[in-house]
Amino acid sequence: MQKYLFLVPFFFALTLILNCDPVPPKEDSGSAEEIVSEEQTTKELLESLDSTDSFTRSQAAVQLGSREERSAIPKLKKLLSDKEPGVRAGAAIALGDLKDKSSATTIANLMWSDPENPKDVYLDALTRMKDPSVGNRIYPLLDDSNATLRLQVVDALVQIGANSVGPQILSLASKNKDREKDKTYAMALGKLKISASESYILRLTQIQDESPTLAAAYLALGRIKAKKANDVLVKALNLPYSKGKENASMALIEIGNPSVVPKVFQTLQSDDAETKLYATDVLCSIPSKEAAQLAFGLLNGKDTKNWGSAAKIVGRQRYKEARLRIEELLEKDTTPERDNFAEALGWIGDKTSVPVLRKILLSGATEGPYGSAWALGILGAKEAVPDLIKALDKGDAKLMVYALEALGSIADPSSLPKLKELLSERPKMAPQILSTVALIPTEEARLIIEEATKSKDADVYRPAMEEVAKRKDKKSVPLLLTFVNGDDSEKRKLSYYALTAVTGQKFRTAKEWNHWAKGK
């Protein structure tokens, strides 16, 4: 039992630690850099499963599982009956990673019979295994007294796709008298999309206690696309419970019944900001010409209170008939929430709006430029690239982010010189800048990213390595190999990941990568 304490972070921290790609040992050169030893070979790990040290056995098990080393399965199955709880746990996690369904029953039995390991050890293993046949062994834990474990059970049932146990869960839920557990059942039934649970979930909404259970019930109604829930959910938008409003709006969107539009539209008259926000989300998201027409009607009226919401609705509904009115109102300084109007033009998608958007982008107004930058990007307006570059120098950090995103959407090479300059001036913004550069499919863009990997600033070289990996350009392989053999231990590890993304090869040591490179 002296090895048992390490189990607490076992599934979360240890796997990550053991999976870190160490770097080759070097002779002492006087550098202050920490020397990291080379990772064990698969052969050594297989031999370690027979070690007399329980911690060594458990480490080897987890490593072999993460490497998807199927030759380890016979030994790992034997370790499920090891005398040490940590070894049993490690073997179960490894077999879960290996998707060895022949071990599922044994691991499920251990979940109920092993008093030395917490149940979530084996629940985690079964979740990784993705075997829906064990759902009938897992779902009874929904009635456990441990709230955290119950939530893990919900996740496990969803991850393994255990929809077949829906009737059993509903039966268990119908007998439940604990309001707190009702939340767990609602979550499980909703996420598993058990439509037969509609009546049960609707009953949960009758208790207006502003509890997590009520919020979960609203969300579940959406997930099962409940046919009788529309009135309940629309009413919830006007209740004082914030989380209830949010979940009810999400449910209405998921159900997507356009018949609710008139009633939801009425809630825009509410004085409650949250109610208006969630009602607007619903009216934006359910495809409905009626919603667009009603919103357009507001824009033609004198009451400006809901103009911002109306602009968002006509935009998201792509109501082209509203374009000219939106442009007209966007140009007026007195129009409230002008960013919504600019964004609406982006959603409508008519490039004839580009001149107005360019004008507002550089106007210096407190509202409008952000939405205009976004819209110009969505419209792919190459003619606006010079304006977006100017926006980068406005000294407005928020506008800079929007302009970078727009330049990435447009992906015009003419922006590269400015982006390169900005990278040297603002290294803290390297992730946003480099992600913009990476969207431009030219050699110059690739070279800028590669040059950034050579930086000594971690804020720059880390996102640069990530973009090299995402770009998957094999022309970057020679550069990555220089890092494999370089002095920077972190860059060596990052180069392993990037090389795997670019080449599809999976090596864990510099020696292996060099051997691969010679044999290409």
The pLDDT mean sits at 92
Low-confidence spans: 1-37
Give Rg in angstroms. 29 Å
Distance between the termini: 50 Å
Structural class: mainly alpha
Largest sheet: none
Helix content: 55-70%
Number of helices: 32
Strand content: under 5%
Shape designation: flat
| Topology, number of strands | 0
Secondary-structure blueprint:
Layout: H1 10-19, H2 42-48, H3 54-66, H4 73-79, H5 85-97, H6 104-113, H7 119-129, H8 135-138, H9 147-160, H10 166-175, H11 179-191, H12 198-204, H13 212-223, H14 230-236, H15 242-255, H16 261-266, H17 273-285, H18 289-299, H19 307-316, H20 323-330, H21 338-348, H22 354-361, H23 369-378, H24 385-391, H25 397-410, H26 416-425, H27 430-438, H28 443-453, H29 458-471, H30 477-484, H31 489-503, H32 510-519
Helix pairs in contact: 1-3, 2-3, 3-5, 4-5, 5-7, 6-7, 7-9, 9-11, 10-11, 11-13, 12-13, 13-15, 14-15, 15-17, 17-19, 18-19, 19-21, 20-21, 21-23, 22-23, 23-25, 24-25, 25-27, 26-27, 27-29, 28-29, 29-31, 30-31
